[in-house]
Amino acid sequence: MSSQAFAPEFQGKFRSMSVNTNYVQALAEAREEVARAMEEGDDLALAQAKLLESEACRRVGEIAEANVAWRASYRAARKADAPGSMAWALWNGGTLARQCGQMTASLRWLELARDMATKAGDVVALGYSVAGIAETLRIRGDYEKARELHVELLAEARKRGECRHTVWALEGLAQLDRNAGDLDAAWERFAEAAQIAEEGGDERGLAWALRGMADVLSLRGEHDEALHLLSRGEQICRRMDLSSALAYNRKMRGNILFRACWYGEAVRTYQEAQKMFRAINEPRGAALAELGLIKSRDKLGRPRPATERALLALLDTLDSQELRHTRKMVQDALDDLLELVA
C-alpha cells in the first residue's frame, strides 16, 4: 500500500508544500526565500531555496536560470557542510542535463549525487539519483541496464510504500515494455501507476501515466479514448505549469492523430509541440516532433526525395547528441522510406 505523495526535493521551510504546487507559485516563493537566506547568511536555507528555484525553473522551461540555480544550491550546501543537500543539488543538475539531451553529463551528475547521498545516509536522495540514472540510460537506449535498475527501484519503493517512487519505477518499466512491443505488460504497468498516483495525490505522475496509457490505446486502434486520456493529462500539466510534460503530451497527441490518419491535424500538432520543446531547450522532444512532422507531410503527398532529405538532415542533427534511441527511430523511418522507393 503506497502512502500519500510528497516532494522530498521541497526541503527546509518548503517541506510542507504540496507535491502538486503550481511551479510559477513555487518559483516566486523560492526566490523570496533566496533573498531572505542571503540577507541572513543562512547557507543551508539558501541551498534549499536555490534547489526549489532550480527545480521550478526547469519545470517551467527557464533552462539557463535553472542551470545557474542548481550550481548555486550545491555551492551553498557545500559551504554549509550539508552532504544531503549537495546530493539533491547534483540530482537536480543531472535531471536538467537529461532534459537538455546531455546524457553523459546527466549520468556524471547523477552518479555523483548517488555517491553523495550514500555518504549523507539520505536514502530518498539515493533512490531519486538511481531512478534518474535508470531513466537516463533508458532514454539513451541502454535498455537492459535501465530495466535492471527500474526493477530494483520498484521493489524498494513498494517496500517503503513511497507513492511517487513506485509510480516512477512502474512508468519506466512500462515504457521499456512498450518499446519492446509488449503492449499488454505496458498497459498493466501504466494503469497501475495511474491508480497509485491518483490515490496518492501525485498529479505529475498521473499525467505521465495517462500519456502512456493513451499511447498504448492508440497503438491498439482506440484513438478517441486515447485522445480523451491525453486531454485529462493536459489539464494537469497546464494547472501545474509543467512545460516539458505538456510538450510531450502535445507530441503524443500528434502521434495519435498520425496513427488515426488525420495527417493535416497531426502536422499542426507536431508544429505546436516542436515550438514548445525549442522554447525549453529540449532537443530530444524537438527531434521526435520533427520526425512526426516529416512523416505526416510525407503522408500528405510531399515528394519522397524531399522527405528523404529532411530525414537525413534530422539524422545529422542527432549525430552530435547522445540520443541513441531517438536516432534509431529516425534511421528506421529512413530505412522504411528507402524500402518503399526501392
UniProtKB/TrEMBL annotation:
InterPro entries: TPR-like_helical_dom_sf
Coiled coil regions in record: 20-47
UniProt keyword annotations, A-Z: Coiled coil
The UniProt record lists the keyword DNA-binding: no
Superkingdom to which the source organism belongs: Bacteria
Pfam families: TPR_12
UniProt name for this protein: Tetratricopeptide repeat protein
Organism: Saccharopolyspora oryzae
